[in-house]
Design a protein that fits this description.
The complex is a heterodimer.
Chain A lengths: L3 H17 L12 E2 L2 H7 L14 E3 H11 L1 H4 L18 H6 L14 H4 L3 H11 L10 H14 L8 E3 L2 H6 L8 E3 L27 E4 L21 E3 L23 H11 L17 H7 L6 H11 L18 H12 L6
Antiparallel strand pairs in A: 2-3
Chain B lengths: L14 H4 L2 H8 L3 H11 L16 H4 L3 H4 L36 E2 L18 E2 L13 E6 L5 E4 H4 L5 E8 L16 H5 L2 E10 H7 L9 E6 L6 E5 H6 L2 E6 L2 E2 L9 E3 L12 E7 L14 E2 L5 E3 L7 E6 L4 E3 L3 E10 L5 E7 L7 E2 L1 E2 L9 E9 L4 E9 L8 H8 L12 E4 L5 E6 L1
Parallel strand pairs in B: 3-12
Antiparallel strand pairs in B: 1-2, 3-4, 5-6, 6-9, 7-8, 7-12, 9-10, 9-11, 13-14, 15-17, 17-21, 18-19, 18-22, 20-21, 22-23, 23-24
The chains are: A mainly alpha, B alpha+beta.
Chain lengths: 352, 443
Amino acid sequence: MSRSPDRAMRLAFAFAFAALLPMSGIAMDGIGRAATPDEIKAWDIDVRPDFTGLPAGSGTVAEGEVLWEAKCASCHGSFGESNSVFAPLVGGVSKKDLETGRSATLASDSPTRTALSMSPTVSTLWDYINRAMPWNAPQSLSTNEVYAAVAYLLNLSDIVPADFTLDQNSIREVQKRMPNRNGMVEFSGLWNRKGKSDVIAVACMKDCAKTAAISSFLPDFARNAHGNLALQSREWGPVRGANTEVAAGTGATAPIKIAAKAVSAAATTKKLADGKGCLACHGLANKVVGPGFTDVAGKYKGDAAAQKKLEVKVKAGGAGVWGDIPMPPQAGLSDADATAIVQWILNGAAAE
Amino acid sequence: MTDRVDGLGRIRPAPESFLTQSQIAEVSAGRRDFLRKAMLAASASAGAPAAIAAAGSDPAILDKQPWGTTLGKPVASDLYGMPSKYESNLVRRESPGLASVGGASVAFTPLQGLFGIITPSGLHFERHHQGWQDVNPSKHRLMINGLVKTPKVYTMDDLLRFPSVSRIHFLECGANSAMEWANTAVPTVQYTHGMLSCSEWTGVPLRLLLEDCGIDLKKAKYVYGEGADGSHQNRTIPLEWALDDVLVAYGQNGEMLRPQQGYPLRLVVPGGQGVSWIKYLRRIEVGDQRWNTKDETLHYADLMPDGTTRQYTPVQEAKSVITSPSGGQVILDKGQHTITGLAWSGRGKIKRVDVSVDGGRNWQTASLGSLVLDKALTRFQLPWKWDGGPALLQSRAIDETGYVQPQMRQLREVRGTRMVYHNNAIQTWKVTETGEVFNVQIA
């Protein structure tokens, strides 16, 4: 008891010091321990623009193409061009860009923003694929597979030829051909909190502008696009949500109360399917990468064997029924979840 | 009673208390004119206190209510308390069509219904690049390596042995208001500004940990953070910032971080865009070059009109927005109201907030809440008498460096319309004669 005020004083003193001196002067001896070389090797995976951190290995464009079809195409498309799940990776790069190091598309009115048209450094692609891809199984690629995937992407943008092998040395030559290698600029105004902005406004108080013309507003047809806004504000109070299920000025101000819907079994399974990543590639009714679920239900209507067949297929993966893009295996899915999801799909994949 | 200023504080029965079921059905069917008449009838003649309707007295007072005439629920019937059932409209929501997969999406904070400056932890906006995880704290480690004398590993147990600090800071996604760069795109403040939250964060100053590892201040120029989840999110942070007020945080509003906020450990980078606040933080590296990571190259980089791209722009400039009344809402009555909103700056404290009700032609200075903190949300208010006519509501923040929040036009003049990040423009809400409020932009 008698010691605690003393301890608090010491801490307070130490912190006063921390604010004043370049070094805090607080010695916290004996907390934590030295990292072992193996631990650092396991976690220190970053690759810098100067290729510090890049491990030895190699991969060819041809190997990359096979890998891509198996593990990447389902989200990014066979040629890295798909816009349906994520932004496109490939496109917007011209031969001239490889010489100038400036992606010309980025200066146009409708720029084609892709990983290849924007990235100034090839290290960025290598580092990201290595640390985070594939999206649903990060860090499952070998070092050589990462080289191969990057080689394939580079070939799709004609940065390297079809017979190219990417490795620790050849990647340095690639850097000299990156299409936007000269496209990045520094702006210290937003790098440092003491920086000055490039947009300077003045706080006028009276008679500042002659008119206030409205230049942009939401069209009437979009009125309910975010759901009924009456249910998105507090249901009491002097200001409430507008009923957007009716047109503006026709009862939108009437306070409404809609009973909360019971959560149905279908909604629960939809949530499960979403959580397992199914909806990343399948829409309920529309094709995304794979077929829409209602299309699947239609195809197998009346097929008594479909339930079992699709359970196996979901877990093992497959291709060819709906197009060339393969569905990756979902090995981590439990049998019970696979049964529930397939049942829900075959019943029409209701959202609610 | 009758001489109460502008009817401030008057009580009026909620419409459902004086409308019959069939009248309510008519209202639901869209007969708004009918409602107005009914409201007027219920409000009695002008000048009389609205509470005293034709019948004279308020049933909410005259009638005994069930909560006053029955035994309430016992303690611990909710082991972790949840908001009242009457508050269920105020939840995080996704903006339809913004993202195709829930694991790489955003759920926005319902700013339209919140008070003060602290965001309830359960309503803190969510932004994940590869889904969220619930990391086991017993298996979580923080490694510090690079330009340090001794690369070290800390367990969560270790980190809680260091002295901690608690500070209130806003956290804003770099892409907040991004959908509005080119034109109006979404209806409410939840979607225009809801990638914004503010919490009390508790943790260890990063500086203390860097010193504990013996940081080489002669060579060090940058600090790098990296997450433990599938995205292994990584970003470069300026050394002077890291040594100033960056925290390695485990606490949020008095409890541990929520899983969606990086449980059990995240970086707090005051004033910096959200993507720098690495969640599930597992490694810090000290270096002498920047890393050029995916999210400082392909994303969170700013495409300028000349086709160059600005990199490394983490500072969130001063910004403000009126949260009530705001887009998608309805002002029920004419007369006295209070305009309220939030202001914040990544460069320091908010010095002043001005409010305009005529689309920026004339401005009045709003009053600031009692807590005006460094790099934190700041609440502002301005009493306003709505005369039932059209109005264009705006707010404008000025921070302690003298920086003035710009108009959309001024931002576009310098940065073009192809930007995604750093939209801190003045927001305009149009109030119509019916009391409905709309998101608009002014030329």
